[in-house]
Amino acid sequence: MGGGGQQTEPAEPGSGKTAGVYTWEEVQKHRSRNDQWLVVNRKVYNISQWVKRHPGGSRVIGHYAGEDATEVFAAFHPDQKFVQKFLKPLLIGELVATEPNQDGNKNAEIIQDFDHLREQAEKVGLFQAQPLFFFLHLGHIVLLEALAWLMLSHWGTSWTMTLLCSVLLATAQSQAGWLQHDFGHLSVFKKSKWNHLVHKFVIGHLKGASANWWNHRHFQHHAKPNIFKKDPDINMMDIFVLGNTQPVEYGIKKIKHYPYNYQHQYFFLVAPPLLIPVFYNYNIMKTMFTQRDWVDLAWASTYYIRYFYCYVPLYGVFGSLALMMFVRFLESHWFVWVTQMSHLPKEIDHERRQDWLTMQLQATCNIEQSFFNDWFSGHLNFQIEHHLFPRMPRHNYQLVAPQVRELCEKHGIPYETKTLWRGMVDVVRSLKTSGELWLDAYLHK
After folding, report:
1. So what's the pLDDT on residue 18?
2. Do 44 and 37 form a contact (C-beta atoms < 8 A)?
3. How is residue 185 annotated by DSSP?
4. Can you tell me the mean pLDDT for 12-18?
5. From CA 184, how far away is CA 212, in angstroms rounded?
């Protein structure tokens, strides 16, 4: 029923019926799997039938069903006028005039101030990329790969040369991971189609992975970071318990899939060595075949063809496979520590429907800026700025950081920056704390 009695039946998208007006209470009723509404700039949209066709995946847009999606809409879409063409047929009405712009626990003043900051950043050109930066980054990846192969071809495949080659290839793979991340976030070219095309080249040809798999997974993480059942990066399949809430819940329910009070120890045997070579590789291949994503599969195939063409003559088939797995093993350690040190020690909880700034700051922290830290982490040491402005080119994070810090101080939101060493230590410390919370609840509650 429309607010104020102005409409008793919601208009069907594209039906031509007069659009109605709705309260937040009515909008929030539509957040089930097959019945999903959301609000963008006070306009109410029924995305129930369209959600499966959403280019970013059904889950990321479904995570905002029943609530205001204005901020996430602005964060993810560079050309909002273009996207409006897809939204217009889904329009069913708008919010009642007496309803606030935002729902739930979202702070109107924070939203307004952050929107102003984003507009200022766009006005001074902080969303404009420097093509030379990314070209040089790609060049150093190609150079590392070429150097690894030339070194083996010239000096042979001794254990020393093989180890050095593995380090060079793992470095190239890690840096290619940061580069595909840039194109995946549409932060290099003005036109999205060029970002998508180069993204497929970098993640497919340079890494042997799937752009669609990455997009559908990663944007969920950005949309709802550190939120259970919405952020896939904290879906630990019951191997670990995270944060302060989940361990207690598991303990009270007497759930003991693993000895969680020792998880800070077996973490070293599970997450860093196995995430990429086992879990990610399996899921990427499974996704491409089950979804019949032949385009991404073709791009990934070019990586494996190139790799085996280069290394089978040197190591044979089984030796080349062993080298590849060892490189993935090294890369996995690099990836896990860089990505987890900015998220795992932060707040991890169930959905609280907060404004964009508050939600992102509670789930992220920064690592100190230095030339090495910037290179080592692909500028993800500015994790706060990256999460607030996912489309911003990474070389501009440090330029917007002072304004972000000032805004956080104004609203009393903690802005945390750590050393690289402390960031890594806090990963282990947070796992230990969560394990102890689980054990206490398991034994005494």
Report:
1. 45
2. yes
3. T
4. 48
5. 9
Confidence of residue 7 (pLDDT cuts 50, 70, 90): very low
- Beta bridge partners, 35, equal 32
Q: What is the dihedral of CA 148, 370, 400, 384, to 10 degrees?
A: 80
Q: Residue 116: name the closest of 68, 61, 74, 79 by CA.
A: 74
By C-alpha distance, which of 268, 251, 252, 269 is closest to 260? 251
Residue bearing tokens 């399949």: 237
User: Which residue type, as a one-letter code, is found at position 136?
Assistant: L
Identify the bridge partners of residue 37 per DSSP, sorted by sequence position: 46
CB 204 within 8 A of CB 303: yes
Question: Quick check: helix, strand or coil at residue 22?
Answer: strand
**How many Cα atoms sit within 13 Å of 79 on the Cβ side?**
10
pLDDT digits (tens, 9 = 90+) for 155-183: 999 999 999 999 999 999 999 999 999 99
Q: Are 438 and 261 in contact (CB under 8 A)?
A: yes
Is-contact 93 44, C-beta < 8 A? yes
> What local confidence, expressed as pLDDT, does residue 355 receive?
95
- pLDDT band at residue 13, thresholds of 50, 70 and 90? low
Q: How far is CA 111 from the centre of its chain?
A: 22
In angstroms, rounded to a whole number, what is the distance separating the alpha carbons of residues 185 and 267? Answer: 29
Do the Cβ atoms of 103 and 68 come closer than 8 Å?
A: yes
Q: Which amino acid is at 137?
A: H
Burial (CB count <10 Å: 0-12, 13-18, 19+), residue 372: exposed
Closest alpha carbon to 102 in 65, 67, 76: 67
pTM of the model: 0.92
Give me 379's structure tokens. Answer: 């500028």
Backbone angles phi, psi at 325, to 5 degrees: -65, -35
CB neighbour list of residue 404: distance below 8 Å, 6 or more residues apart: 117, 384, 385, 388, 415
Over the stretch 188-236, which tens digit does the pLDDT of each residue have? 999 999 999 999 999 999 999 999 999 999 999 999 999 999 999 999 9
Query: 31-32 and 20-22 as β-strands: parallel, antiparallel, unpaired?
Result: unpaired
Beta bridge partners of 123: none
Q: At what angle do helices 420-444 and 263-274 cross, to 10 degrees?
A: 130
- Residue 222 to residues 56, 116, 122, 344, 358: CA-CA distances in angstroms? 12, 21, 20, 14, 13
Q: What percent of the chain has pLDDT over 90?
A: 88
